[in-house]
Write a structure and sequence with these properties.
This protein has 99 residues and is an alpha/beta fold. It has a single domain (22-95), classed as Hypothetical Protein Mth938, Chain: A, CATH 3.40.1230. 26% of the residues lie in helices and 23% in strands. It contains three helices and five strands; from the N terminus they run ββαβαβαβ. Helix 2 (56-64) links the parallel strand 3 (42-46) and strand 4 (68-72). The longest helix has 13 residues, at 74-86. The chain is globular, with a radius of gyration of 12 Å.
Length: 99
């Protein structure tokens, strides 16, 4: 399976994600993820080639939905997602594409 661009890896499957830059990681672009929050224990956010902290309003909205979010570079988020998924953890990932 191959995907181009940013993706959301959710319990329901892998979906294209409209966010292209860290500034576009918002509650609005994370709406599909928030709809599945009850099935997720941890959200890994890949912020591109470099770590960019999540905006406080995004972190607050995720917390309101009962989600703990960890931001990290996309390559680290993808690797961590695979490890946690193999451990049957309830994990999701929002991964910005790296050019």
């Amino acid at each position: 399976m191959s995907h181009r661009g940013s993706i959301l890896a959710l319990p329901s499957g892998i979906h294209a994600w409209e966010a292209r830059t860290p500034a576009e990681i918002t509650a609005a672009t994370l709406r599909p993820l928030l709809a599945e929050a009850a099935r997720i224990e941890l959200l890994l956010v890949g912020t591109g080639a470099e770590l960019v902290p999540l905006d406080e309003s995004v972190r607050r909205r995720l917390g309101e939905a009962g989600l703990r979010a960890d931001a990290m570079p996309t390559h680290a988020a993808a690797s961590t997602y695979n490890v946690l998924l193999a451990e049957d953890r309830r994990v999701a990932a929002a991964l910005l594409a790296v050019d």
